[in-house]
Amino acid sequence: MSAHNQTTAPLTDDTSDTFSLAGRTYRSRLLVGTGKYKDMQETALAVEASGAEIVTVAVRRSNLGQNASEPNILEVLPPSKYSILPNTAGCYDVDTAVRTCRLARELLDGHKLVKLEVLGDQKTLFPDVIATIEAAKILVKDDFDVMVYTNDDPIIAKQLEDIGCCAVMPLAAPIGSGLGIRNPLNILTIVENATVPILVDAGVGTASDAAVAMELGCDGVLMNTAIAAAKHPVLMAQAMRKGIEAGREAFLAGRMQAKRFASASSPIEGTFF
Length: 273
What we know:
There is one protein chain. This protein is α/β, with parallel strands linked by helices. The chain is 34% helix and 15% strand. The protein has eight helices and ten strands. The protein has a five-stranded parallel beta sheet. The N and C termini lie far apart (51 Å).
C-alpha cells in the first residue's frame, strides 16, 4: 500500500506530513502551472500565494533561456526557490514530447524531473494513451524522472507505474474545463492500487474540487487555469492552498460513515425525563 493511503493522524507539527517525489521531499501538495496569467508579475504573486514548491512550465511556450531577447520565466521563479517541472504541453506525438523533455534537460543543466503529456486532439485535449505509454518507456529508459498525465483509467495508471514513472497524474476532467472530479471512484481506485504518488491533474475549478481530490487520498493536485482564469488569481491561489490543506487533514482524520437516515448527535440513553 502506498504511503499516501496512511490514515494515521498527523503530528501537530505541520512539517511532519510530507510526500516524496523522485527522491525529494515536499511539504506543499499543491503544484501550479505558469501559463495564462496577464504578466510575469501576476504569475510570481499567484505562485507565492499558493505556497507551491513545484512549478510546472510549458517548454514549448515559455522561455527558459533559449531566447536571450525575451524575458526568462526563471528570473521570477528561480530554481533556487522552486522545483521547476518542465512539461510537454502542446505535444501531440511521441517524438515531439521526447525531444521537448531532452531540450528541457539541456536548458536546465541536466534536470531529470519532467511532466509528460501527449495529447490526442486539440478539441478535447484528452491524452493519447498509446502514445503516452510509448513516450514514457523511452524517457524512463533515458533516465528521466517521469510524472505522467493520463486519463482516469486505473488499468492504464498501473501500467504507467509499472513502466517506471515516478508519479501518475490522472485527469479530473478535461484540461481547462473547471468541471471538477467527474469520476471520483476511478480516482479512488487508482490511489488504492498505487505505490507511487498520485496527483490529480486537469479539470479542477475551485477550492472544493481540490479538497475532494485530497479527501480521496491523492498525494497532491496540479492546476493552472483554475487559478490563472479566476477573477482574482492571487486570491484564488490562496483559496486553493487552503482547500488542499483542508482536504488532506480531512483524509487523515477519517470521515464519518455516510448513513441513509438521521442519527441523533446527542444520544437519548441516560437522559432525564
